[in-house]
Automatic annotation (TrEMBL):
The keyword Ligase does not apply. GO terms for molecular function: zinc ion binding. The keyword Zinc-finger applies. Keywords: Metal-binding, Zinc, Zinc-finger. This is B box-type domain-containing protein. Residues 33-64 form the B box-type domain. Pfam families: zf-B_box. InterPro entries: Znf_B-box (IPR000315).
């Protein structure tokens, strides 16, 4: 759907973040945890299909 709506601009995936047309401030904002503002999103929870910081992973995304 994205390619149909925005056919006139180039899209870059996470692997090409250095080519994203956003400012460094926006990039930093997108990589920060919503709950723990000082933490960076650096983990992925397969069970919840969510990016999370180490604190969230430990507190909310452990397998029982």
């Amino acid at each position: 759907m994205h390619n149909q709506l925005f056919s006139n601009h180039a899209s870059f995936g996470r692997g090409d973040m250095n080519r994203w047309p956003v400012s460094k401030k926006v990039e930093v904002f997108l990589l920060k945890c919503d709950v723990h503002k000082e933490e960076t999103l650096n983990m992925f929870c397969d069970e919840h299909s969510k990016l999370c910081c180490a604190n969230c992973a430990f507190l909310n995304h452990r397998h029982a």
